[in-house]
Each structure stands twice: as C-alpha cells, then as structure tokens.
What we know:
There is one protein chain. The chain is of the alpha/beta class. It has 2 domains: 2-136 and 327-359, Rossmann fold (3-Layer(aba) Sandwich), CATH 3.40.50.720; 145-319, Rossmann fold (3-Layer(aba) Sandwich). It has helices at 38-41, 65-69, 86-90, 110-115, 145-158, 161-169, 193-196, 198-204, 218-224, 231-237, 257-262, 280-288, 328-346, and strands spanning 2-6, 27-30, 52-55, 74-77, 97-100, 119-121, 185-189, 208-212, 227-228, 240-243, 267-271, 292-297, 317-319.
Amino acid sequence: MMYGGRDTGTGHKDRTRGRSEVAGVSKIAILDDYIGVALDYGDWTALPDDAEITVHRQAIPPERLVDELYDDEIVVITQQRTRLTRAVLEALPNLKLIVCNGPTSNVIDHEARIERGILLCGTAETEQGAEGRPLGGDTRRGLPTPSEMAWALILAVAKRTGVEDRVIRAGGWQTGFPIPLAGKTLGLLGAGRLGGAMVPVAKAFGMDVIAWSQNLTEERCAELGVTKVTKDELVSSADVLGVFLVFSERSRNTLRADDLNNMKRGAILVNISRGPIVEEAALIEALRSGHLAGAGLDVFDREPLPAGHPFRSLANVVVTPHIGYVTEAGFRAAWQRMAQDVAAYLAGSPIRVVTDPADLPPMAPR
C-alpha cells in the first residue's frame, strides 16, 4: 500500500510520492482526519499493495474540493464535515465509492450520487441485533456524550474556568464571580433525547427546568418532569438556555436578535446542536455588549471556525471544536469498519451498502 501524501498542516497535500505517475492505482482520499487517527485506528493492511491513500488532516475549502479529489476512486468522509454536493459529484469522474461513519450521511446529495452510480457504504452492522447499537460502547447508562458536553460548557462558563485559567497563566488572580446554579432556571430549546437527558442533572444542581419547541407535547414534558412554556417565556425566563433542536431549514435562526435581547441580562447560552440555529451576528453582539454573561459553543456556522472569528477572541465565550459526539472508542470502531468497507469494495464484494430509501436523507442545510 502506498501513501500518496498526508496533509502538511497548510491544507495542501504532500504530493512528493508521485501519486499521479502510477497508472491503474486505486486512489483513496480520507477527509477531515483532524486528530490524525485514521491510519492508526483502521486496519488498512487488507488493501491491495498498489492502493494509494491520501489523508487530509485539515478541511478542504469547498472551492478546492474538486481539484483535490479529481483523481480519487474512493472518498472516506466523517459525519457533518465535507459536503459532497451535486456540483462536486458531477465533477469527479473517477469517484466510485463513498464511505461514511454511521448508517448513512446527510452531507451527500444522494440523488446525484445514485444517478452517477456511486456506491455508499456505512459503518452500521446489518446482522440481527446490531441495528441501533452504538459504535464503541453502550451509552444507555448515564448521559449521551453531547449532553455531557453541554454540561461541561455550562459549568465552564458559569464557573469561569476558562477565563480564570487564562488569568492565572498570565500571572493574575481572581477577576470575577462564579455563577451558582442552584435556584436558577435551565431552559431547553428542544427536549428530545439530548435535551431530555439534561433534566436529571439540572435537578441535582437544584435548578428548575422549562422547555419549548414547535413539536413539544405536554406528555413529553410530564415524562421529563419539566414545565412546558412558550418560546417567549423560554427565552425571558431561562438563566441558562441550552440549544438541542435538530437543525433544518425550519429551525434555522430560531433564536434571532429579538430573542437574545429578551433573554435575562447575565444569562448563559449553550449550543451543542448546530451553529445556524442561533443567528450568529446577533449572538456576537449580545456577548460583546455584555447582555449575556457568556456562551458555550461546540458548533458554528462554518466549521472549522475561521481564523480571526470573534468567537476565538471573546473572553466570555468557551469554544470547543464540534466534539460533543466524539469519543475515542467510537472513532476506533468506526475507522475499523470504514477500512473494512474499502477493502471489501476493492476485493469485489462490497459490505454495508446503503440502499434503503429511508437511509438516504436529503442534504442537511448549511
């Protein structure tokens, strides 16, 4: 097996191994391997000796995607990162297989993919009993990892851990007051699996919990033991407002400038769902003005977050790089299966092929 080049840290591939000079080579691109674990966690030894893998450690800008992937027969993607639109797929003449982690992907234009005869393989097992089994371990105990991340961000902002850590490292000492959570109100914008998992912890902290979404029912609120409110009541009453909605065109900009202005002065906003659910410019202004005490953000309008973005410098913002769902065990299991998918395809017997229309969602909006 050959390695056609790893990302050098500038976003460009190292092409010094002469990948374009080898005729008939099966060329494989692994995208968005930010942490650099794809080759270590997946067993790629079953691939033919002349297979050539190029690992992209950084995100490829959309305008360069076709140029970077033009020669590749196989593209391996991870969820919610590089988008393979119709325009991109139609400009990749050699692409025959896309491999994704998870049962399917909503960053692929499946209609265009099918039209072009491009196969899709995922990491969901198909044997009896495996459906719905989480990769890398059983998460039925405790909180889902994104809900854990939400609490980490809430506590980081409320207890000023990021701010005071930076102050101490710079030679300073106390600069402000932590916010106690007991007696405060947690507002859930969305009370599905992730939002609902916040409730027992909130009550352990002595918080009241209120919730709203367009589809939220009284029955669900009774099940969780929370109070159903209107959207206006949610934003005006919450001391901590958590965003847990599923992102769609309907949920885009659910929180606009008026909503943020109606929040309590000194409130905290946490978003582990998707960046565009909150109007970005309005959130930046609410944080700059001090109307909000702070925000904890794991998701952004554009990912990776551009250099120079205000969220990188605002002192009252705690940011993490969309890792709410990320676990080492999950990625180890996923990369093993993705490597198996590639090897099986090159051996002429594809596995975990995604064909069920129910598993071919429309592309998620940007």
